């Protein structure tokens, strides 16, 4: 339509009629004279609106799905975190059970040797520089720890305390090359000195060059004067190799330590030595050798022919 004076007058007239109808409709309420026209329009345009709504609903559903997907992802993330927490809790339970086992074994060892101990946990390992084998424990002078105290666990000798702070201490491990401890053979009482060799067996120099020793023999600590740095009777290890005796004044054997130095966790510092030397009491009992099962021999005697018949292959 062209923009003319007549068209502008027509537009103003239509707007005025529209306002008039709106006013009449509002004032009429439910009895509005245009209500019939509205219902007729609803019948005509209702299906069109439904069709448009049906076309738009998938888009709305897709938007809702995206929103729900975000909620589901959040829920999945929450479930994954809860699952990880449960796994960590189960792992923590396993860890606690392991600590309980270690404490139980260590307390049995301390009880057998009559050692008064202060329990501690490994919290750090020493630097690998200089081939030093040391660990840091979470007990120090505030806990009654002093320098040159024996350190053990449920398996045996761990080392000795070298440095003490208020809340922590440094322990030199028995497999350190600078570590030396006096030893005594089980039963034979042969004395020697064990030295650390890192991840190899301890090297033990027996004072008696003619000492009778064999693979599997066990050693314990001999003890020091005033029980420092070592108390007596702590299990050290068992012999895994014996050098041939060449008539020397000493004899060399190699001992596998009872303690696994690469998996230390719970240890005990001996703060009170035993009243008497426990000697071999701390060593675990050797398993009994199985007795051989008795052998029964059964001899089968052939039976005689029936009715005294000769065994000649013919009937009588």
Helix and strand layout, with pairings?
Elements lengths: L4 H24 L6 H79 L2 E10 L8 E4 L12 E3 L4 E8 L4 E5 L6 E6 L5 E7 L2 E7 L11 E4 L13 E8 L8 E7 L8 E7 L44
Antiparallel strand pairs: 1-2, 1-12, 2-5, 3-4, 3-12, 4-5, 6-7, 6-9, 7-8, 8-11, 9-10, 10-11
* Average pLDDT: 79
What is the N-to-C order of secondary-structure elements (H for helix, E for strand)? HHEEEEEEEEEEEE
Largest sheet: 6 strands, antiparallel, barrel
**C-alpha geometry:** elongated
- In which order are the strands of the major sheet placed? 1-2-5-4-3-12
Helix count, DSSP H or I runs of 4 or more residues: 2
Into which percentage range does the β-strand content fall?
15-25%
Strands, total number: 12
State the end-to-end distance: 145 Å
Unreliable stretches: 41-46, 312-316
Structural class: alpha+beta
| CA radius of gyration | 47 Å
**Helical content band:** 25-40%
Note down, in words, how this protein is organized:
This protein has 2 helices and 12 strands; from the N terminus they run ααββββββββββββ. It is α+β, with helices and mostly antiparallel strands and 316 residues long. The strands form 2 sheets. Strands 1-2-5-4-3-12 form a 6-stranded antiparallel barrel. Strands 6-7-8-11-10-9 form a 6-stranded antiparallel beta barrel. A hairpin with a 2-residue loop joins strand 7 and strand 8. It is elongated, with a radius of gyration of 47 Å. The protein starts with a helix and ends in a 44-residue tail after the last strand.
């Amino acid at each position: 339509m062209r923009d003319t004076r007549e068209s502008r007058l027509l537009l103003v007239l239509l707007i005025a009629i529209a306002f008039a109808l709106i006013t009449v409709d509002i004032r009429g309420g439910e009895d509005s004279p245009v209500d019939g026209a509205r219902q007729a329009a609803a019948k005509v345009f209702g299906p069109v609106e439904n069709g448009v709504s049906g076309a738009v609903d998938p888009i709305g559903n897709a938007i809702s799905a995206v929103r729900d997907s975000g909620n589901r992802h959040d829920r999945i993330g929450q479930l994954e975190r809860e699952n990880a927490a449960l796994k960590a809790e189960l792992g923590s339970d396993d860890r606690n059970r392991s600590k309980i086992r270690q404490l139980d074994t260590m307390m049995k060892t301390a009880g057998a040797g009559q050692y008064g101990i202060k329990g501690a946990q490994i919290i750090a390992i020493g630097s690998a520089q200089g081939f030093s084998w040391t660990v840091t424990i979470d007990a120090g002078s505030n806990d009654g720890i002093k320098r040159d105290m024996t350190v053990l666990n449920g398996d045996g000798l761990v080392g000795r305390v070298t440095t003490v702070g208020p809340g922590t201490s440094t322990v030199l491990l028995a497999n350190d090359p600078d570590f030396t401890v006096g030893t005594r053979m089980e039963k034979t009482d042969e004395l020697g000195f064990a030295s650390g060799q890192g991840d190899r067996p301890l090297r033990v120099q027996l004072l008696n060059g003619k000492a009778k020793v064999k693979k599997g023999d066990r050693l314990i600590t001999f003890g020091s004067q005033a029980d420092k740095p070592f108390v007596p009777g702590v299990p050290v290890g068992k012999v895994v190799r014996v050098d041939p005796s060449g008539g020397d004044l000493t004899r060399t054997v190699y001992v596998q330590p009872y303690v696994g130095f690469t998996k230390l966790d719970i240890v005990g510092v001996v703060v009170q030595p035993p009243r008497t030397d426990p000697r071999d009491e701390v060593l675990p009992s050797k398993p009994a050798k199985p007795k051989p099962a008795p052998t029964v021999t059964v001899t089968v005697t052939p039976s005689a022919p029936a009715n005294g018949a000769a065994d000649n292959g013919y009937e009588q």
